[in-house]
Amino acid sequence: MRAELGIGVAPVEWRHATTRDIDSIAALHADSWRRNYRGAYSDAFLDGDVLADRLAVWTDRLTSAQRQNHCTIVAECDGGVVGFAHTIFEHDPTWSALLDNLHVTHELKGHGIGTRLMAETAQTVIERAPSSGMYLWVLEGNIAAQAFYAARGGICTGHESSEPPGGGTVTGHRYVWPDPSVLFGHKWL
Q: Each residue of 128-172: pLDDT tens digit?
């Protein structure tokens, strides 16, 4: 599906990721972590091994035999990946589908790509399991992301500490959408 974004921005296509997207998704993921997770993830990891780590993760995700339980949607503009959302279906018995990753290129944040990726993800979750909910984790210090998810109907239901790649400890807040269809009504342009 194609959609116009804003003045001076080319049309965006939304599609399921393929193995040809591994390098682009990994690079975008690494860049997003470097820009947004500084202070939460170790600087040594972000400045060093993050791209190799993300390449290994995305190679596994997009070539694994278990792909039927995962879905990665990309936003593509001018032949390049400008955003992606990765979901793991039936991840949790209480909260259901986990939106494990949602990232948009730094230059295109604020153009509605993240909102549209969430709506596309919600549609996929509902198609797979109509009564399924959706949830995600957002870092405690990522106030902008917390506001983004709350503005899209996400309800913060708790927090947990975990060890991120590269070591250390981070606290994440769980945002849930018991009915992901609420994400269809948000203006993404």
A: 988 899 999 999 999 999 999 999 999 999 999 999 988 999 999
Tell me the β-bridge partners of 174.
137, 158
What is the domain extent for residue 91?
Answer: 2-185
Task: Write the DSSP assignment of 7-24 as a string of letters.
Answer: TT---EEEEE--GGGHHH
- Count of domains for the chain: 1
> Which token pair is 127?
């198609």
> Which residues does residue 41 pair with via DSSP β-bridges, in sequence order?
38
Domain harbouring 73, CATH code: 3.40.630.30
What sign does the CA torsion over 156, 160, 166, 168 have? positive
Task: Name the phi and psi angles at 35, rounded to 5.
Answer: -80, -35
φ, ψ at 29 (rounded to 5°): -60, -50
- pTM for the structure as a whole: 0.90
